[in-house]
Amino acid sequence: MKKLLTLSFAFVLISSFSNQAHTDINFYGKINVSLEEVDSKNTNETEFQNNASRIGVKGSYDLSSSLKLSFQIEEEIDPTDLRADGDKVFKERNTFIAISGDFGKLYTGTHDTAFKQSQLKIDLFNDTRADIKYILRGENRMNSFVGYVSPDLIDGLNISINSISQSTGNGESSAFNYSKNDIKASFAIEQNIKGYDGKRFSVMLPLGEIDLGLIYQSSRKLSSGKSFSGHVVSMKRKISDKGSIYIQNAKSDMRVVSGKQNSIGYSHKINSSTKIFAHYSSLRKQDSNDYITFISTGLEYKF
């Protein structure tokens, strides 16, 4: 019901404000697909893979000189088989309405949690088979969601707070976020989100020509009280005006026993909207005899 209300209100905004001088409405999207070879103990196959391709519309309306109303409707699409979610053509992504001003930003709908956003794009293989969601818990997009982002409390530091309604009770996700002079850091806490509590510390540092990212996380399963920890280390270096190479290591027991994920990739920018890439990733479970590898080449186009 809340999803329907959010979408209905957003469409009302489009029709009501589309002719207003202070309204800004944009359609956008991204196509990201790859040809992927998957090799494990029991299978070897090659297939086209959709990497969270999407389309969306977003807009904003100036209610006054200091108050803005905004919205976003975003859906995942799958160019490989036209089915993004089982038999469904579309799969909901961040879809919300928001009001913002000097007090910060208040929004409701479906959205990535503050805990998920605290990874600061350290995951260099996001939306692919080497995404950290296959190793770490907490990469959640939730509905029945109310969020708040503060203005800067001090230079470069703000807070993000989420309240989330679930069948298992209300959950909370919050983060302290810092960004200044190319240094980014975040400390996030979540409580009762999909049956887990968690804490995550993330930092991104420029070290000469290398961008270094670090994540350390602990999570506790509420039903058993069992705790897990994990980490991610990523490094990216630009090797030409259009090319970058990146490597990533992740380790945790949260998703798989003795999970170890190692990945390396290269991307080449063709123009401002198009790039090609090649990835190699391995996911090892329990011991070196239980693993799966992915080799992929792909294309990303933004519009």
Low-confidence stretches: none
Structural class: mainly beta
Strand content: over 45%
Give helix and strand order, one letter per element, not per position: HEEEEEEEHEEEEEEEEEEE
Question: Portion of residues in helices?
Answer: under 10%
Average per-residue pLDDT, rounded, comes to: 93
Identify the notable features of this structure and list them briefly.
16-stranded antiparallel beta barrel, mainly beta, 303 residues
Write the layout of secondary structure elements.
Blueprint: H1 2-17, E1 23-40, E2 44-50, E3 54-64, E4 67-76, E5 91-92, E6 95-101, E7 104-112, H2 114-117, E8 141-149, E9 157-164, E10 171-180, E11 183-193, E12 196-207, E13 210-221, E14 227-238, E15 243-252, E16 259-269, E17 274-285, E18 287-302
Antiparallel strand pairs: 1-2, 1-3, 1-18, 3-4, 4-5, 4-6, 6-7, 7-8, 8-9, 9-10, 10-11, 11-12, 12-13, 13-14, 14-15, 15-16, 16-17, 17-18
Textual characterization of the structure:
- With 303 residues, the protein is mainly β.
- 7% of the residues lie in helices and 62% in strands.
- The protein has two helices and 18 strands.
- A 16-stranded antiparallel β-barrel has the order 1-3-4-6-7-8-9-10-11-12-13-14-15-16-17-18.
- The longest helix has 16 residues, at 2-17.
- It is globular, with a radius of gyration of 20 Å.
- The two termini are 31 Å apart.
